[in-house]
Amino acid sequence: MSGRGTGASYTAASMSSAVVPPSSSPSTSPSSLSFLGQIRQLMETLPPSERRLGEFILDFPGDMASYNASELAELVGVSNATVTRFTRRLGYASYEEARRHAREERSRGSPLFVARPEAGGDAGAGGFVAEHIQQACENMAATFAQIDEAMIDDIASAICGARSVMFLGYRNNRNFAAYLRWQLAQLLPGTQVIPGAGETLAEYAVDMGEKTVLVVFALRRSLPITARFAASAARAGAQVVYVTDQLSGTANVPARWVLRCHSAAPGPLDNHVAVIMLCDLIATRVMRRAGAAGRRRLTTVEAEHDVLSELKR
User: Fold this and answer.
1) Do 93 and 82 form a contact (C-beta atoms < 8 A)?
2) Where does the pLDDT of residue 1 fall: very low under 50, low under 70, confident under 90, or very high at 90 and above?
3) Quick one: CA dihedral 78, 83, 85, 89, positive or negative?
4) Sign, Cα dihedral of 97, 56, 13, 92
5) pTM of the model
6) 3-class DSSP state for residue 137?
7) What's the pLDDT at 250?
8) Which residue in 107, 109, 108, 89 sits closest to 98, CA to CA?
9) Residue 190: which region, alpha, beta or left (left: phi > 0; alpha: psi -120 to 50)?
10) Does the bond joining 195 to the residue before it have cis omega, within 30 degrees of 0?
11) Is 39 within 8 Å of 46 (Cβ atoms)?
12) 219-230 pLDDT, tens per residue?
């Protein structure tokens, strides 16, 4: 789109010439609702051309974050004046203000902002499987270019020396926390994913201290409480391992280790191969450092599998 001759930015002068009639819906500050929430609220009141624009943006909001007004108008098949009226009706002073809001929401990681109108087409000569494999390899290379073996060994040593190891993650991050904990529970006592059902983090805050390791997964779209609890645990003396991604900030969390996993993907859903690789490396190094005690625990676990006939068909 950037190569089109009509790609000039829509000027403030041309936008000021458009007059939007008062909306019948209650006025809403652009900051009080999400960008897409504002559009959904007004959809039923929009005239046909603006409704077509609104439907397109709801399906592919990333285009508004990426394109200027003229490019978006051409993509949807409406006039520049329609784009101007639409953004004014949403309560923005200009298209650029609306686009900044859309960009802010894109940075929070919604897959809608990554989806493209042409999604579902061929991925090229190599095919979509090859495309995803290539991206996964690039993610792992970029991730472990910043995480060296000494750091992983330091984390493994801290975990083996801890009285308790807690794992925290919300939404999709909960899966990573549970996966790493499951690996380590076979080797070490005192491991737990927090909070449990019906529990709050405050009930675990009192247990944080120098003998605790807190492993936090906070890849994008994590809840703000994750960073707050991690900071609280660090202040209480816990050793915090903070796993995030290349796009998310650490919210000034005073973690001892911050590990950023690259999660770029060809499509709208993040590729988490590097995160799983990191979990496997940490578990492998913990197993090595757990020594005879870890092997005895693993042997006992396997013996109990036999006693309980849990894994027999």
Assistant:
1) no
2) very low
3) positive
4) negative
5) 0.67
6) helix
7) 65
8) 89
9) left
10) yes
11) no
12) 987 888 999 999
Express each pLDDT in 269-303 by its tens digit. Answer: 888 999 999 999 999 999 999 989 888 898 898 89
**How far, in Å, are 146, 172, 174, 219, 246 from residue 261 at the CA level?**
9, 14, 16, 8, 6
**What mean pLDDT do residues 138-167 have?**
95
Instruction: Decide if 81 contacts 69 (C-beta within 8 A).
Output: no
Q: Which domains does the chain have, with CATH numbers?
A: 12-113 (1.10.10.10), 128-308 (3.40.50.10490)
CA separation for the pair 103, 209 (Å, rounded): 39
**Which pLDDT score, from 0 to 100, does residue 128 have?**
84
Rg (CA), the chain: 25
> Would you give the end-to-end CA distance of the chain in angstroms?
58
Q: Provide the CA 60 distance to its chain's centre, in angstroms.
A: 18
93 in Cβ contact with 104 (< 8 Å): no
pLDDT digits (tens, 9 = 90+) for 11-59: 333 333 344 444 433 334 444 667 788 888 888 889 999 988 988 888 7
Instruction: Identify which of 282, 284, 271 has the alpha carbon closest to the alpha carbon of residue 137.
Output: 271
Average model confidence (pLDDT) across the chain: 83
The pLDDT confidence band at residue 61, using thresholds 50, 70 and 90, is: confident
DSSP state, residue 91: T
Query: At which residue do the structure tokens 């200027």 appear?
Result: 68
Sheet containing 239-245, strands listed edge to edge, beginning at the edge strand earlier in sequence: 191-194, 164-168, 212-217, 239-245, 257-261
Q: Where are the beta strands (DSSP E) in the chain?
A: 164-168, 191-194, 212-217, 239-245, 257-261
Are the beta carbons of 166 and 204 closer than 8 angstroms?
yes
| Tokens describing residue 305 | 């599998």
